[in-house]
Amino acid sequence: MKHIFQQGQNDNVLLLLHGTGGTEQDLLPAAEMIDREASILSVRGNVSENGMPRFFRRLDEGVFDEEDLLNRTAELDEFLQEAAAEYGFERRNVIAVGYSNGANIAGSLLFHYEHSFKGALLFHPMVPRRGIELPDLSDRHIFIGAGENDPICSPQETKDLHELLVGAGAHVELYWENKGHQLTEAEVVQASKYYHHHLNH
Predict the structure, then answer these.
(1) What is the C-alpha to C-alpha distance for residues 37 and 23, in angstroms, rounded to an integer?
(2) pLDDT of 167-200, one tens digit each?
(3) Is 160 a catalytic residue?
(4) Backbone angles phi, psi at 97, to 5 degrees
(5) Catalytically annotated residue among 100, 108, 116, 192
């Protein structure tokens, strides 16, 4: 997968996962705000939708292609194993930082792989899959940033995801902004506070 890796000064690795139409450059400023001493692994989605990079296909707005989602989730999991070996970091120190489509593939990894991440900062995520049993997430810390007026990811979708993650034992903080689907600076600042409190040690 096309990616950028930057070696940091501490053990944490921020896995940056962009939104639809983004690239591996998009979340670098957010990563700088969250932890400038962490290593960075920023990945570009392998799927093209009308020339826009994504991490998995969708059938319609908000309707995921489940088969492709499962395949791409496995592909990203494998890529993380290979990257850990290549760059010499511990897989258990990876923290996902995802926005929109990137947050959805991060959520899918949490839903399908027990040891996918140390934790996650998810901005405007949806429920990746419904009706499946989640792995035990009892030692995971997850931040969710959401917009009360998000036209793409409804508040109910956010609440459902929160409930599913908590039901699997995860520690989840939900942060609401009176905004739409865009990623705001206030959200990143709040995520950074959460990260330093729960994930940076």
Answers:
(1) 22
(2) 999 999 999 999 999 999 999 999 999 999 999 9
(3) no
(4) -125, 100
(5) 100
Q: Is 201 a catalytic residue?
A: no
Structure tokens at 70: 């499962």
Q: How far apart are CA 146 and CA 179, in angstroms?
A: 8
Long-range contacts of 183-187 (CB under 8 A, 24+ apart): 183/19, 183/30, 183/99, 183/100, 183/123, 183/124, 183/145, 184/145, 185/33, 187/123, 187/145
The per-residue pLDDT for range 97-131, each reduced to its tens digit, is 999 999 999 999 999 999 999 999 999 999 999 99
List the catalytic residue out of 18, 112, 150, 162: 150
Q: Is 150 part of the annotated catalytic residue set?
A: yes
